[in-house]
Specification:
259 residues, alpha+beta, Beta-Lactamase, three-stranded mixed beta sheet
């Protein structure tokens, strides 16, 4: 087995939630409207999903149908695992176990344009719907370009410093907070500051060692597994079905955690 180093911890999976790409409200509304108005007359289209950078931009669905967060993460993995979606429109069967473990949907998968890293997935029960969905994809792309939504997506992905969502910690006004997570139970959406950077945390601890020359101080190794274990432990306790904890507080020499 090849050993890999995890430099960033993505906590989305632990609370059973999906992280959404932070966007201006008007931009997200325009994106959703573009997809809805294009797809509302397409027969048997079950889901239309736009994602970027392992984050959800918008999801349009048939009435009475929903997608579980774990199924959305499967779609994230599908898009991330193949470079072919960037160069061609793909037609592939997709099984979403939480939605229907006994069958699959037919998926039209492609990036929205060459100059935008957002991927559009159109999922249907019709096996011969490739060409109608391909036309819909191009129509959606044209609408998003005319409304400058592609620029808004790129700015969010490139972390434009002018956007207040680029650095949430900066706008909270509590400099002691290093990282936070908030899950909305009704939508299973997750809002969080940046994924934990182990290098940044180690640098932070080095610069804040008390006394002595920081250049000769030994930094206690921070394990990514420790942080993952902490999030998993607290989320399991908070969301335990039998005896859920209402409040968790822990403070030690390394950090203070409130859940």
């Amino acid at each position: 087995l090849k050993k890999t180093t995890v430099n960033y911890i993505k906590p989305n999976l632990f609370p059973g939630a999906v992280r959404c790409l932070p966007l201006p409200e008007k931009a997200r509304e325009n994106i959703t409207n573009a997809i809805q108005t294009t797809c509302n007359k397409i027969r048997d289209l079950v889901f239309a999903i736009l994602i970027a950078g392992n984050q959800l931009i918008t999801l349009v669905r048939m009435k009475k149908y929903t997608l579980h967060p774990s199924d959305i993460h499967l779609l994230f993995n599908l898009v991330r695992s193949s470079e072919s979606f960037k160069t061609a429109e793909s037609w592939t069967p997709i099984c979403l176990p939480k939605f229907d473990s006994t069958g699959f949907l037919h998926g039209h998968v492609s990036y929205i344009s060459e100059d935008c890293q957002a991927c559009l997935l159109l999922l249907t029960v019709q096996r011969d719907a490739f060409f109608p969905l391909s036309q819909a994809k191009h129509t959606i792309a044209d609408k998003l370009r005319r409304s400058n939504c592609l620029v808004a997506i790129n700015d969010a992905l490139n972390r434009n410093e002018e956007l207040p969502t680029t650095n949430p910690l900066k706008h909270i006004g509590i400099p002691e907070i290093r990282h936070f997570m908030y899950k909305c139970k009704s939508t299973a959406q997750l809002f969080t500051s940046d994924p934990i950077s182990l290098d940044k945390l180690q640098d932070y601890r080095l610069r804040h060692k008390e006394g002595g020359d920081i250049t000769v101080k030994k930094v206690e190794r921070l394990s990514d597994i420790d942080y993952v274990r902490n999030y998993r432990q607290f989320c399991s306790s908070i969301h335990c079905t039998s005896t859920p904890a209402k409040l968790i507080f822990r403070s030690n020499s390394c950090d203070t955690i409130l859940a």
